[in-house]
Design brief:
Elements lengths: L1 E6 L2 E7 L17 E6 L4 H8 L5 E6 L8 H13 L7 E6 L1 H13 L5 E6 L2 H7 L4 E6 L2 E8 L4 E4 L9 H18 L1 H9 L7 H18 L14 H11 L5 H11 L3 H13 L10 H10 L7 E6 L7 E6 H13 L1
Parallel strand pairs: 2-9, 3-4, 3-5, 5-6, 6-9
Antiparallel strand pairs: 1-2, 7-8, 10-11
Helix pairs in contact: 2-3, 4-5, 4-7, 5-6, 5-7, 5-9, 8-9, 8-11, 11-12
The protein binds nicotinamide-adenine-dinucleotide.
Nicotinamide-adenine-dinucleotide binds next to helix 3, helix 4 and strand 8.
């Protein structure tokens, strides 16, 4: 399956196929030098499979984990490119989850003002979400994605077989992002996931349909000026839960709980039932003042309000600029329920 992203000046293909990781060379000129960047939590078979296809490829392994998505590791990638005398006609390939894609993608965006970048996402979250849309970044002093750019890959290769080595908790975290896209944009996909009894065997379908939503959203708002904020469904409260949890909850788990604060009526019931069936956490243990403390300090809280993505009916959503007092009431209501 091929999905084409059409952003003016940045047209590229996403190839989705089982086993495609063994065949990336067919799409990248062999005369280029290639730096394959992965992290030490990604099974090495994936990066090795890519390196072995090229005559001039080097593997560079960074430390896993979001705490390591920092300027030091970014500089390490730049140094690796420089030490191997990469020029602007060479290329970088990322093999890993969103952390590797964001960090090494940013290195590709900035090394010599930009070299070709190919992305091979290997977590479900990166396959349905972070590998397209062009956002690359590192954290600054622990604050997420403060330094970054919009820089699109030349091509994305999605091999659902790489998910076989992903543990269930990480798999579910990625699924939350697909559910988020379905809940806000595609009632039929939501229904499909609701009724799917063997999600792993049908994951290729879910990835493709989630990517088609992300494609539509990203093409309509490449620089995240407005409509793309629909992808933040669940993230305002979710981010607060993630921050207060200090590592207890994965991002996707926090977003799952966050979605339940910003959905209503039948949509809320259906999302809750689906998350419950998948074994995702539904309620956090933090008080309304604790959650509000983080939300009020969030960088997105502009002049006393936050743009919330609200879902009242599965498949559609509204972006509503919401005063902090209303958010507080929403949170308190759910806490009481
Ligand atoms: N650019 C965007 O638009 C965007 C969107 C959402 C999230 N993000 C970013 O993505 C990152 C999170 O991405 P993630 O959830 O993929 O986490 P991640 O990249 O940290 O990967 C999670 C863990 O899974 C391991 N792993 C990766 N692939 C594996 C595989 N196939 N088998 C076994 N283990 C594997 C990694 O080593 C890591 O330990 C965050 O930094 C977040 O800010 C970016």
């Amino acid at each position: 399956m091929v999905i084409r992203i059409n952003i003016p000046g940045n047209e590229y293909e996403i190839l989705i196929a089982r086993g495609v990781i063994q065949d990336v060379k067919s799409y990248i000129p062999d005369e280029k030098k290639i730096l394959v960047v992965t992290d030490d939590g990604v099974p090495s078979i994936y990066a090795d499979a890519v390196v072995s296809q090229f005559s001039h490829a080097y593997k560079f392994v960074i430390k896993q984990g979001d705490a390591n998505k920092n300027l030091r590791q970014y500089e390490d990638v730049l140094n690796a490119l420089s030490q191997h005398a990469f020029t602007r006609s060479d290329a970088l390939i990322t093999v890993g989850g969103g952390m590797v894609g964001d960090l090494a993608g940013f290195a590709a965006a900035t090394y010599m003002r930009g070299i070709d970048f190919y992305n091979i996402p290997t977590t479900l979250l990166s396959q349905v979400d972070s590998s397209i849309g062009g956002k690359v970044a590192v954290n600054l002093s622990g604050i997420k994605n403060t330094v970054g750019a919009f820089y699109h890959p030349k091509r994305v290769f999605i091999d659902p077989d790489t998910l076989n080595t992903l543990d269930q908790r990480l798999f579910n975290e990625g699924l939350v992002e697909a559910i988020k896209m379905a809940a806000t944009n595609d009632a039929r996909l939501f229904e499909y996931i609701e009724h799917c009894r063997d999600i792993k065997s049908n994951i290729e379908d879910i990835i493709v349909r989630a990517l088609l939503i992300k494609k539509k959203v990203v093409e309509s708002d490449p620089k995240e000026k407005g409509p793309r904020m629909v992808l933040n469904f669940g993230h305002t409260v979710g981010h607060a839960i993630e921050t207060l949890g200090k590592g207890k909850y994965y991002h996707g788990e926090a977003v799952a709980m966050g979605m339940l604060y910003t959905s209503d009526n039948e949509a809320k019931t259906r999302i809750e039932n689906l998350l419950c069936r998948l074994g995702l956490p539904l309620k956090d243990e933090f008080s309304t003042p604790e959650l509000m403390g983080v939300i009020a300090h969030d960088k997105k809280a502009k002049s006393g309000g936050v743009t919330l993505c609200l879902v009242d009916q599965i498949g559609s959503s509204k972006l509503v600029s919401t005063p902090l007092e209303e958010i507080e009431q929403r949170i308190a209501r759910r806490k009481k329920a």
